[in-house]
Amino acid sequence: MGNISVTRAVKRPSKMAFEYLVSVATVIVFGVLDLLDALLCILYGPIDEVLEAADGIAPSCYCDYKKQLVMGDGGDEAQQVSESLYQRRNFFRGVLVLFKLLLSRNREDVVSRRKNGGKSRWSDCGCGSCQKDGDKRLLHVVVKEPLLQGEMTVENVIFFHGCLSSSSFWTETVFPNLSEVGNQKYRLFAVDLLGFGRSPKPWDCLYTLNEHVDMVQKSVLSPFNLESFHIVAHSMGCIIALAFAAKNVNSVKSITLIAPPYFPSLQEKASLNALNRLAQKRLWPPLLFGSAVMSRYEHVGRSVCFLICRNHRILEWAFKPLAGKRYFFVLQDLMRHTHHSAWHSMHNVICGGAKLVDRYLETLNNESGSPLTVIQGNKDQVVPMECSLNMKLKAPRTELLIIPNANHWNVIFGREQSFTSHLERIWLSVAAENIKEFKLCAVFQKFNGSFTKISGSATSHSQLCEPQDYSLDGHSKN
């Protein structure tokens, strides 16, 4: 017993010393990054003014404290611009602002960038895929049609990917693993979100939730005339999916969210709280360190994208033999965006969306009977487990599934077949519930007196039956 206590006594100070050294190293590393970001701000400013000036307005950055919003089309993006863009802490920010004032660099706030008509930035890639940014055309959508369209009712499913990803996330995992019945019953839509994959990447855009949702609306709902659909989303795509579902509340049949970055709304602090939880200043693990650097340091992140994304074709060619065929698309997706699109999507969707998600959940809970399923791995280092637990508390009807020994990606990767089977079970259960509701409505309608007496519950059943008129054999008449 004496030896054990001595060993414990020795280990404890060593552990404390290690933690102290890590803390000191963290302060030093992020202090250097603060300085580097400030210096890069000074460097990029004059270059941008020379190379990107249009109509007398040069794009600015978010290093200034001011927040002056200049709207280009009368929208409400002002409410969706995240405070995390302006209020990120940087030890040298005060010195930087003073330096700018001394140089009399009188530039408009970054939001006035919407007045610019520029096609692309000098630091972005110039290939055909990355240049789809001038006119904000429709999003790139991959559609998988049912193999046989006979008497079976066809249902629609819309997939939303996460940050630094694309429609390939779904076309390479779920699409090939549908069951025989699923291949006949479901029409699948995988979207490249605005600024990612093969979709447009406009740089005179703030990538707010409204802009993301409107583009999905114009690219999927309107062209394909979808009246009802299921939703499946991963990571950042969950926030966009909830906003999209709340806007089309009467059309949603089910919502499945994988690793949603949800944080309860804390009014003005919600955006900063989300940033501090998702991008903590930590050196370990490397994944969190990278997330902190790319989310907190605008100019350092832009430099990384300048080196990697601008040269993605060369890097894809170099790493293709090493990456293997199965998940090579992940490497491609990591580089097929611009810094502007990823930076603003991170802050205005994930961080800024923290102020709005509670409202979306309340809308869906009050106005829609569609089931909500949340899936997350218990080893997720990107999105804390508390996010899914908090969503369950906010929306108690949520079905929460925790996958053991799964992280942010292999909650699906390596589990493609079982994951797809579970999705199909969710979709089928909704169809079965609708048939059950129809039969219940038919019983109520036979007894008109009873139907009127219990108007509270009967009305809800009646409303559920209105959108789709199912025959008793389970097929839709629509």
From TrEMBL:
Domain AB hydrolase-1: start-end pairs = 157-414
Cytoplasm is among the record's keywords: no
The UniProt keyword set, sorted, is: Membrane, Transmembrane, Transmembrane helix
Q: Which residues cross the membrane?
A: 20-45
Which InterPro entries did the record assign?
AB_hydrolase_1, AB_hydrolase_fold
- Iron-sulfur recorded as keyword: no
Indicate what this protein is called per its UniProt record: AB hydrolase-1 domain-containing protein
